[in-house]
Specification:
mainly alpha
Length: 243
């Protein structure tokens, strides 16, 4: 990893951590496409490891506000999703996995922009948890399904519930990826290098969120996610034989 690549990844992690703390998700959507551009082996395991630390910080900050009942049903749904996502990581070539990451980002942005608001029934929470498990394990982007089903929650309650779900869910995904042989010394080394950027993002989030409008923050997050996904698609299609 060159100095320029390290700076790009650190900036991406810092911005993603600010968004994760501010709105409850965003680290995966911002970081996964950029990580895949720099080094495909970094997404999903490094992004998930960083997400564990960031979501734990949010949960401590918003302690006591989580919807534990809804979170429990979502985690039940996540179990089969995690198994399916780990299978995809094993079977899909790196190029196809990169395109899947881009597709998940673009789909999540499109659905969010369309304003779809499902009712948070037990069945919808279970299905969202399953989709999040599959997407989160295969691509490290598990936020959009949960953000949609829980978007009626107030800001602090949304952040606490999302963080509780993603803390446990990310550990589940990492365990499955470790069994699949995806998490190794390279993963841990890169995570350690990028951890200071995640810490900086968490520390900056509180003063920044006092000044930033939540709607504008989400808009910027979606724009950055689309830019990263578009660059990833362009890279992969440009590298395709015969392109």
């Amino acid at each position: 990893m060159t100095g320029g690549e390290f700076a790009l990844l650190s900036l991406t992690v810092g911005i993603g951590a600010v968004l994760q703390v501010s709105v409850g998700f965003g680290l995966g959507m911002i970081a996964a496409p950029v990580f895949s551009l720099v080094d495909p082996t970094l997404a999903p395991p490094v992004v998930l490891l960083l997400a564990v630390g960031v979501t734990a910080a949010v949960l401590v900050r918003e302690r006591g506000g989580a919807d534990l009942r809804g979170c429990g049903w979502a985690l039940v749904g996540r179990v089969p999703g995690v198994a399916a996502g780990a299978t995809l990581v094993i079977l899909l070539p790196a190029r196809h996995l990169a395109l899947l990451i881009a597709g998940v980002v673009l789909t999540g942005v499109a659905v969010s922009a369309a304003g779809y608001v499902p009712r948070p029934r037990r069945s919808s929470v279970l299905l969202a948890g399953m989709a999040s498990g599959l997407m989160g394990t295969a691509t490290s982007i598990g936020g959009p399904p949960m953000a949609m089903v829980w978007q009626r929650l107030s800001g602090p309650r949304l952040r606490a519930t999302m963080s509780a779900f993603f803390l446990v869910g990310s550990l589940m995904s990492l365990a499955a990826l470790a069994v699949a042989g995806v998490v190794g010394a390279h993963t841990l080394q890169r995570t350690a290098l990028l951890t200071p950027a995640a810490i900086a993002g968490v520390l900056l989030a509180r003063p920044l969120t006092r000044r930033l409008n939540a709607h504008h923050t989400r808009t910027v997050a979606m724009a950055l996610a689309v830019a990263g996904a578009g660059g990833l698609v362009a890279q992969q299609l440009g590298a395709w034989p015969g392109a």
